[in-house]
Amino acid sequence: MEHPFITNFVYLDPFVEANETEAVENLSILRLSIMDNIVDALNNAYQEFLAAAAGVLEAREASGGRKTSATDAALENFKQHWELFRVACDQAEEFVESAKQRIGSECLVDEATGSWQERLGRLPHLAFRL
């Protein structure tokens, strides 16, 4: 699948050699693939968490609001899916923080070398607002 961002990004610096361009493109595709996997995992964990919450409500309704083994099992399932959802959120947050640090570092290097003027034609401090 071709991503317009990658195509635009690769051709910003006309001085990059062909093999370096391919390496940048491959790295960008890999990063997008990782991000897609994280988003999918987060979505799946959220959907399972919602289903577990619905299971608690259904078990309570079926028991007439009394505590039963079915309501206990539904609550335990809910707790497990809550933890799995929290883990997925933490992983997504770690990925975003990593990306922010990487972008910030790249901007610092670009600012120090002046290469941002050649490649982007705009001020590097814009990326620091992430």
UniProtKB/TrEMBL annotation:
Q: Name one GO biological process term.
A: leaf senescence
A GO cellular component annotation here is: mediator complex
From what superkingdom does this record's organism come? Eukaryota
InterPro entries, per the entry: MED32
Q: What is this protein called?
A: Mediator of RNA polymerase II transcription subunit 32
The species this protein was found in: Nepenthes gracilis
